[in-house]
Write a structure and sequence with these properties.
about 100 residues; alpha+beta; four-stranded mixed beta sheet
């Protein structure tokens, strides 16, 4: 069986920004209730995605510094996903 692959990426209209990318599995958004992640991490991921929609939908968009802070937060969340899921799972991140 292929190594499990999860991808952290913000998306318009989706509240939970973790995606299944494992070859041979249904690729797409993951149900947070079935993700195996702690409630705190689920809420942090949802808040991060909501912040993205605000930062990048604004006219003008958020400042460069706000965007950098948001991107760093995403990297940290992706690392937390990997730590909580554990095992032989590859977690990637795309700002």
């Amino acid at each position: 069986m292929a190594r499990r692959r999860l991808h952290v990426m913000a998306e318009w209209g989706d509240t939970f920004p973790v995606w299944e990318r494992t070859p041979g599995m249904n690729v797409g958004g993951i149900d947070p209730a079935e993700s195996g992640l702690s409630e705190q991490l689920v809420q942090d991921l949802i808040a991060w995605n909501a912040q993205w929609e605000i930062l990048f939908a604004a006219e003008p968009p958020g400042t460069e510094e706000e965007q950098r802070v948001w991107m760093r937060a995403g990297r940290g969340l992706a690392k937390r996903v990997g730590l909580e899921i554990g095992g032989d799972v590859m977690v990637t991140y795309q700002p």
